[in-house]
Amino acid sequence: xxxxxxxxxxxxxxxxxxxxxxxxxxxxxxxxxxxxxxxxxxxxxxxxxxxxxxxxxxxxxxxxxxxxxxxxxxxxxxxxxxxxxxxxxxxxxxxxxxxxxxxxxxxxxxxxxxxxxxxxxxxxxxxxxxxxxxxxxxxxxxxxxxxxxxxxxxxxxxxxxxxxxxxxxxxxxxxxxxxxxxxxxxxxxxxxxxxxxxxxxxxxxxxxxxxxxxxxxxxxxxxxxxxxxxxxxxxxxxxxxxxxxxxxxxxxxxxxxxxxxxxxxxxxxxxxxxxxxxxxxxxxxxxxxxxxxxxxxxxxxxxxxxxxxxxxxxxxxxxxxxxxxxxxxxxxxxxxxxxxxxxxxxxxxxxxxxxxxxxxxxxxxxxxxxx
Length: 371
Known about the structure:
It is a single chain. It is built from 14 helices and no strands. It is mainly α.
């Protein structure tokens, strides 16, 4: 409910420019990334995932609605940072818990299904926000307050229904402890993969810019939640399929294909001139997510031993988060100084380079020996 409205709230109500919006999102994601590494490592060390997941969701559930009180863009930055602290604490342990819960041959499907359910919520949220804005004539701030309700419900479900799963590591792994000082123990394949992911991320700025660009192309402010819901509907419908496809065809082909789709979408936004272009490109952007969102995480689990999963997901998310801040800052700066088309062309070009790099660093088939 909040995310698709936030860039418009910042620009139209609080007067923030594209560079500052990029700084807010980049700083928020980078903060989360640092904590993902620490929480992932800690979940390996104590061999418990759920307590960290609960703590992370609690912080985010409490922080997000306070966006309604913000009077300056700097206050929104503080709220977003707090929200992302919660995300940083929960994400790596949650991903490791999911990997622990399924067999290796179903990892792609599991992560794809998880992404689909996450995106299903992102369909309903914007639709609810649109109805509140359009038919009840509520303000953006009122919508932000009401977002506390689904957050609280989700937290209750987490406490009551989610169970800790104990995965059995191979005998030779049982005495191994996660160690920040020995990242080499995760293996060369993992680090090569992480480097390419970081390269791609440097061209993958916040999706808030897609909403701003769509607004430039004629998508009305009131339709922004609908556009966002449309994107997430595509992701919801295709996410499980994309993850399952990676179980059959291998992770590399799906990730390369997804990054090529991303490049095509960004080149499309650079050249777009009509309102319908925005809708078509957003639909294609959903295909990119379907091919990669679950597959990238499944590949992490493929490449590392069970006892390192928390740390591996922490490093994976750290790479994405560290790339998010410069990506959004660079994108916003190019947008402000040269224009939106040049910024989107820059992101597309880096995606092409990363797709080529991916051909050389990852195995073509899932590695199931570490599961």
